[in-house]
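User: Please predict the structure of the protein below. I'd like the answer in structure-token form so I can feed it into my own downstream comparison script.

Assistant: Understood. Taking the following sequence of 310 residues as input:
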Amino acid sequence: MQVSKWFIIVNPAAGNGKGRKLWPDIQRQLEKAGIDYVFEFSCYAGQAISLAEEAVLKGYHKLAAVGGDGTVNEVVNGMCRQNQYPSAQLCFGIIPVGTGNDWIKTHSIPKDYKKAIYLLRSGRQKEHDVGQVFYHNKAGIRHHRYFVNVAGLAYDAYVTKATKVRPKWGNSQLYYLYLILSCVKTYKPSLAKITFDGQTMEHAFYNITIGQCIYNGGGTKLVPHADPQDGLFALTVFKDIAPWEVIVKAAKFYNGSITKHKEAFTSQSKHILIEAPEQSPAFVEVDGEYLGQSPVEFVMHAKAIQIMAP
């Protein structure tokens, strides 16, 4: 039986605690907007996945996240992992309170949570592709994860791993820029092979980015050709870009012009496979969450969910 209410999953830790701090006002704004809902708090990493999956099994077809990109990823995973309803029948909404909030930028969803709340009622449903990434842990066991924004390997994954040991602070763009620049000194590219759209590239890539939406890492645009409704992954790879260029040309990472660099290559594909030598595997992150290592396979699920957007 389909339930008409919104099921809202709140990440109290999102935005360095903004999720918990702002929730009382978010509730007031939801009531003011006349939105009928129930809610649950996620209390640990990964719990929003099971909360979303359980909600769908109970008949909720409209799910919203109070959080940032990580919470978006978890809720979408719960929606796609359940097998009772086709995910294309489900609708996702966001009340952004995260640090980066990169996913909302592609869809012009307001960062102001008060304005975003009204999209749950007055916005329109749009089809959205969902990517599925298969990866391996250190023991060689295969796992999978769904994602709706951007995945990264090589330098991108290296920087994401650094976030686990460097506490977040202040402005998200400045924080991610600090990480990008601080990791330049220690990162060393390693050999990888990329197979996509009937082509193969083998090189010690500096960076590999695979996107459905345009922004990640606090606003960088490494896949400006991404479109979340075209059924294709946007692929950008950098071969021999010099570390000093990452520093000097940092602004170009944010306006998308870095993809015109002579060492950059862009393409689109429904399926991407990335392999690397066992002794020096390629690592992968999606939507800002570090996952594991190669071999890594990306599979596209076109128009897999509905989202609420302007």
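That's the full token string. Residues 3-122 form a domain with the Rossmann fold fold (CATH 3.40.50.10330).
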